[in-house]
Design goal:
This protein is of the alpha/beta class. It folds into 2 domains: 4-49, no CATH class; 55-374 and 376-415, Metal-dependent hydrolases (TIM Barrel). Helices cover 29% and strands 21% of the residues. The strands form 4 sheets. Strands 1, 2, 3, 4, 5, 16 and 17 form a 7-stranded mixed beta sheet that branches. A 5-stranded parallel beta sheet has the order 9-10-13-14-15, with helices on both faces. Strand 11 (193-194), helix 6 and strand 12 form a beta-alpha-beta unit. Helix 4 crosses helix 7 (209-226). 51% of the residues are buried.
């Protein structure tokens, strides 16, 4: 028996599609787009999908989430993370290797891919850059690449200059990407939040913007030296955007992303010592937010990620300086950034940062919304006003500052 879904009056957001910004009926049979027309009559076996102000795009891609498995399954599993991603509108999630048992071998890559088979959401693993995150020797990059790792990173662990240079050259030779989290720990060590007036008033050691910018300068120089591509994850400062802008003008092979939550809060939100506002990179100042928005608009920032980092209550309900960094974000990424940038960024631009942008950065195939294509689609309403409640959380962990927040814009589901 065929599986037939009929989307009614769906506005298509995909600049590369011949139907961009048009409202169409879309018939999907056994996972293939069969028809895109002004009006398609429903047959008895069609599942008809109708929503007020229904919009669709190609499936959203999260280019950085930590799903904790293997090693800390009480915080998150691949299955629970996939459910959170589905709620948030993602059809693909690129997972960080920063699990308690690091993804540093082909066996671990196989584990992630095999465990996630059959999920509605595709799970794509990155491998570690160094063996066991020790920063001493390269991991089995070639073997992991053959097993299905799509990129390599030591996540939020520091990488010394020599090893970064070597990894860029090696990754280039196997046609893979190195992802750098820019943070000079000799400047940021023991830091709890953004270094500035607020951290001084609170009596907390700050994480200076300079710790991010110096690492970007170093890694840009190394990428240029090796003529290799590099991607910076979760940049957060005005100066970082400026550095990457200048590098792109020079022709350096550089891309970058930001965490969706970075635009919703400044460092002032930490004044209540609520550890749900403790993230890395930390929430910065308004000038940094303004620059990130500018970078999204002018194409300097290529993608938006969730930087989903689940923690249980034992890791978060502590004094601010003892609590772990990170919040969950799969359920709220689209809604939070759309709400934070309303009137400042076009909807099409934001959707591009969840679709075309990450697909290009990581060399992933993007399915078009055209007749004959496989259906890989996110459904959403960009104008729906709703309040995010604890009951909306699909993650095993609840560490988020967004509970009780009124958002504009919501993912409605996925077809993939």
């Amino acid at each position: 028996m065929r599986n037939a879904k009929l989307l009614k009056s769906a506005t298509i957001i995909q600049p590369s599609s011949s139907f961009h910004l048009q409202s169409k009926d879309i018939l999907i049979i056994d996972g293939i787009i069969e028809k895109i027309e002004d009006n398609i009559s429903a047959e008895s076996d069609f599942e008809v999908i109708e929503h007020d102000n229904l919009h669709i795009s190609t499936g959203w891609v999260d280019c950085k989430a930590n799903l904790r498995e293997p090693g800390e399954e009480w915080k998150e599993t691949l299955a629970s993370g996939a459910k959170a991603a589905e709620f948030g509108g993602f059809t693909k999630v690129i997972v960080s290797p920063g699990t308690k048992q690091p993804i540093d071998s082909s066996n671990r890559v196989d584990y992630i891919l095999n465990k996630s088979k059959g999920f509605a959401v595709e799970i794509l693993p990155m491998g570690t850059l160094s063996h066991e995150y020790k920063g001493e020797e390269l991991s089995e990059m070639y073997e992991m690449s053959q097993a299905g790792a799509i990129a390599f990173t030591d996540d939020k662990h520091e990488v010394n200059t020599g090893l970064m240079a070597k990894s860029l050259l090696y990754a280039k030779n196997i046609n893979k990407l190195i992802v750098s989290f820019p943070n000079d720990t000799s400047l940021s060590k023991s830091g709890q939040m953004h270094e500035g007036e607020t951290s001084t008033k609170m009596g907390l050691k700050g994480i200076p913007s300079l710790s991010e910018e110096l690492r970007i300068q170093r890694d840009l120089a190394l990428a240029e030296y090796q003529n290799a591509p590099i991607h910076f994850a979760t940049i957060s400062t005005k100066e970082s955007v400026d550095l990457i802008r200048e590098a792109k003008k020079k022709g350096t092979k550089v891309t970058c992303d930001i965490a969706a939550h970075q635009l919703s809060f400044t460092d002032k939100f930490a004044q209540e010592y609520d550890s749900n506002y403790k993230v890395l990179p930390p929430f910065r100042e308004q000038k940094d937010i303004d620059s990130l928005i500018e970078g999204l608009n002018d194409g300097i920032i290529d993608a938006i990620c969730t930087d989903h980092i689940p923690h249980d209550i034992e890791d978060k309900k502590l004094e601010f300086d003892l609590a772990e960094f990170g919040i969950i974000g799969l359920e709220t990424a689209f809604a939070s950034i759309l709400t934070a940038t309303k009137g400042k960024i076009k909807l099409e631009t934001l959707i591009e940062k969840f679709t075309t942008g990450p697909n290009k950065v990581f060399g992933l195939k993007a399915n078009n919304i055209e007749v004959g294509e496989k259906a890989n689609i996110t459904l959403f309403n960009p104008e729906l006003t709703w309040t995010f409640e604890k009951t909306d959380i699909r993650s095993k962990s609840k560490n988020t500052p967004f509970v009780g927040t009124e958002f504009t814009g919501k993912a409605l589901g996925i077809i993939c």
